[in-house]
Amino acid sequence: LWVHDRARPECDAGGGVTWIDGVIFDVTERKRAERVLVEQRARLIALMDNIPDHIYFKDVDSRFTMISRAMATSFGLSDPSQSVGKTDFDFFLEEQARPALEDEREIMRSGRPVVGLEERETWPDGRETWASTTKLVRTDGEGNVVGTFGISRDITERKRADQELRETNAALEEAMGRAVKL
């Protein structure tokens, strides 16, 4: 049982304490709720600090409110909190940032998620990567839209392997065509 108590002494004319008025509140449920919140936050932080995928939360203006450590590293940030208030335009070229913003506006308008979208990412340093992205609407406890959240997985190696396979198949088809002519 957890309690919060409040009391004050009542004094007689000579200044001696004659009794104490007090109230005791049972705060057990509040303490349990606080413990649950602390545990949930610890789980979220463990996820955000350790998952290799990029996870983000954005507000209704598509500004980052929280990102995973892996995403911060990709952005060249030493701490994920350095992304707060920034947008995709701060980290990507216009050709990637603009469609992402439009997707997020449509997700917030319609409530329909984007699932498994394969996106080419061109970074300001010229580096090119590919990601499979899922984006969803984020709402508050009353169902009001407060932004979006999403997760992206790097699929660059898979895309490179797919391209190599296409090139190998094309070369094989060409060789087969030459063989048939001979």
3D structure, described in words:
This protein is an alpha+beta fold. It contains four helices and seven strands; from the N terminus they run ββαββααβββα. The chain has helices spanning 28-50, 69-74, 94-110, 156-181; strands at residues 3-11, 17-26, 54-59, 64-67, 114-122, 128-139, 145-154. The strands form two sheets. The chain has a five-stranded antiparallel β-sheet, with helices on both faces. A two-stranded antiparallel ribbon has the order 1-2. It starts with a strand and ends with a helix.
Give the topology, please.
Elements: E1 3-11, E2 17-26, H1 28-50, E3 54-59, E4 64-67, H2 69-74, H3 94-110, E5 114-122, E6 128-139, E7 145-154, H4 156-181
The helix content, as a percent range, equals 25-40%
Straight-line N-to-C gap: 91 Å
Query: Measured on Cα atoms, how large is the radius of gyration?
Result: 28 Å
User: Please, how many helices?
Assistant: 4
Based on Cα principal axes, name the global outline.
elongated
Question: Runs with pLDDT <50, length 5+?
Answer: none
Classify the beta-strand content into a percent band: 25-35%
Strand order of the largest sheet: 4-3-7-6-5
Topology as a string of helices (H) and strands (E): EEHEEHHEEEH
Global mean pLDDT: 92
Oligomer: single chain
Structural class: alpha+beta
Number of β-strand runs: 7
The description of the largest β-sheet is:
5 strands, antiparallel
